[in-house]
Amino acid sequence: MGQITLPGNPPIAVVLRRSAQARRLSLRLSQIDGRVTLTMPRRLPEREALGFLREKEAWLRGHLEARGADVAVGLGAVLPVEGVARLLKPGQGRAVTLGTDAIEVPGAAERVPARVQGWLRTLARDRLAEASDRHAAALGRPYTKLTLRDTRSRWGSCTADGALMYSWRLVLAPPEVLDYVAAHEVAHLAEMNHSGAFWAVVERLYGDWRPARNWLRDEGGGLHRYRFSD
After folding, report:
1. Contact 67, 222 (CB under 8 A)
2. Which residues, 6+ apart, have CB-to-CB distance to 153 below 8 Å?
3. 113 vs 29: which has the higher pLDDT
4. Closest C-alpha to 25, from 6, 43, 7
């Protein structure tokens, strides 16, 4: 892989990926981290790739603007928790406190990102364990364990031995979205596939799952814009 820069204001870094299987140029913008990747046939001259990028520049800049810039988490930043935007403010005492429109974080400013991330992970575990327990009880099938990760390729998973994994960033989304993902993964305890039978189980556990799935498709990438470290 290589990298070129599309000039402009601002300049756009583009990862070049040459592929023996590629028959044409294809451009991809990751909604997760904002990375721009141009896949191109192995022997295509780089000047043709740059020409292709210039043709797509308006499209690319429009989508980058719609995605929004990354947000460094710290005092003064605005962070969504359970779908509600909240201002990070200095706090008193020892515990992070969730208010209606603010999150109060005690301690030194340089420790705020780590403290908020740890607090979010704890909150996410509480919410996801409650939802998973509730859906598993309704299904009549227990899960074996629950783990949290900061995954970029999926919001959750269920293994053949009943282990559930979730992205802790789901706690940033509206509660109904988190609940849908829990119902989705618990449904795999009965149907380890995405067949019609599987979606019938999801609907029985959760109800109409389409709005929540659409939210994740349209808005979920934005949950990865929040950076807790360099």
Report:
1. yes
2. none
3. 113
4. 43
Separation of alpha carbons 67 and 221, rounded Å:
8
Domain containing residue 172: 78-227
- Does residue 130 belong to any structural domain of this protein? yes
130 within 8 A of 108, measured Cβ to Cβ: no
Determine phi and psi for 213, rounding to 5 degrees: -65, -40
Query: Do 88 and 47 reside in the same domain of the chain?
Result: no
Place of tokens 């607090």: 119
Q: What does the alpha-carbon distance between residue 146 and residue 226 come to, in Å, rounded to a whole number?
A: 24
Report the chain's C-alpha Rg in angstroms. 21
pLDDT digits (tens, 9 = 90+) for 150-205: 988 799 999 999 999 999 999 999 999 999 999 999 999 999 999 999 999 999 99
